[in-house]
Amino acid sequence: MTSKRIASGLGLLLGAGLAASQAVALEGDAERGEAAAGTCVACHQADGMGMNNPNGESWPRLAGLPAAYIAKQLHDIKEGRRESPSMMPFANMLDDQQIADVAAYYAELEPWPELPTAYHAADPNDEAEWLAERGDWAEGRMIPACSQCHGPNGQGVGDSFPPLAGQHAGYIVSQLEAWREGKRHNDPNDLMMGVAERLDEAQIELIADYYATLPERIAAQGDAAQEEDGQ
Ligand code: HEC
Ligand code: HEC
């Protein structure tokens, strides 16, 4: 499995990340994970959906994230590749087996909504959609489309590229800033640091709001289309 993944295109970039935290390979048990997650609910909530806190630190949604991604983040936080004074004490409470267990538990909660993947041409007048689907290749920017790694509609790809659609806007902003400030330096080949560095403040706000609200906007479009069909 591992050799297959490493052989596949982007997998090459990820080999480094996976090798850095070998403990990710431990088999997790969701039931034990639920017991170990007792302290997490204060912030990530009982349903694992986290919370957007416009005037403070937002708590990411964990429910439905890939188990391997969750485990990697907990190791990264413990080992300082991702600096978070709020999260560190809780990550430190977990040993390798407990990390695998809570990862299995959260991965099994309500999955990320399935969004249409059918290609639709990005609207050049919609700055956020254009950035998400086409990037920003203006001189001095050279920002690849988020969808190149996070998948169409930011649904996530495999274990390594987390979903963005439906994640809290405040949290997305905080992570892009963390990369810019060097507080998060845990991504294979600094892929995200390179992206975050080249976004300007306005683009960060725009793209965070775009992904946070994408699932509801797509659902609303679906409803509108059905109403039209019904006429
Ligand atoms: C005091 C609030 C708080 C508690 C309690 C807490 N967390 Fe967190 N958690 C956060 C914050 C804030 C972040 C974002 C950290 C950052 O900015 O890098 C986070 C991030 C995470 C992430 C990374 C998510 C991602 O999308 O990359 C994981 C995984 C996680 N927490 C798991 C846990 C687990 C498991 C527990 C319980 C053992 C827990 N947290 C307890 C506040 C908390
Ligand atoms: C070249 C690949 C690549 C591109 C392009 C890319 N990302 Fe990422 N992104 C990643 C990887 C890899 C991670 C996970 C890093 C890790 O292991 O912690 C990530 C993580 C993130 C996270 C953290 C999610 C979480 O749950 O903590 C955010 C937010 C994010 N990316 C936003 C964006 C945005 C916005 C864009 C477009 C402007 C973008 N990314 C483009 C590779 C990419």
Helices and strands, with pairings:
Layout: H1 2-7, H2 11-20, H3 30-36, H4 41-44, H5 67-78, H6 88-92, H7 96-108, H8 127-134, H9 147-150, H10 169-180, H11 191-198, H12 201-230
Helix pairs in contact: 3-7, 5-7, 8-12, 10-11, 10-12
Bound molecules: heme C (2 copies).
One heme C binds at residues 17, 60, 72, 131, 143-144, 146, 148-150, 160-162, 164, 167, 172, 175-176, 186-188, 191-192, 195, 199, 207.
Signal peptide: 1-25
GO cellular component, one term: periplasmic space
Domain Cytochrome c: 28-110, 130-215
Please give a structural write-up:
The protein has 12 helices and no strands. It has helices spanning 2-7, 11-20, 30-36, 41-44, 67-78, 88-92, 96-108, 127-134, 147-150, 169-180, 191-198, 201-230. The N and C termini lie far apart (50 Å). The structure holds heme C (2 copies). One heme C (HEC) binds at residues 17, 60, 72, 131, 143-144, 146, 148-150, 160-162, 164, 167, 172, 175-176, 186-188, 191-192, 195, 199, 207. InterPro entries: Cyt_c-like_dom, Cyt_c-like_dom_sf, Cytochrome_c4-like, Cytochrome_c_Oxidase_Subunit. Residues 28-110, 130-215 form the Cytochrome c domain. It comes from Halomonas icarae.
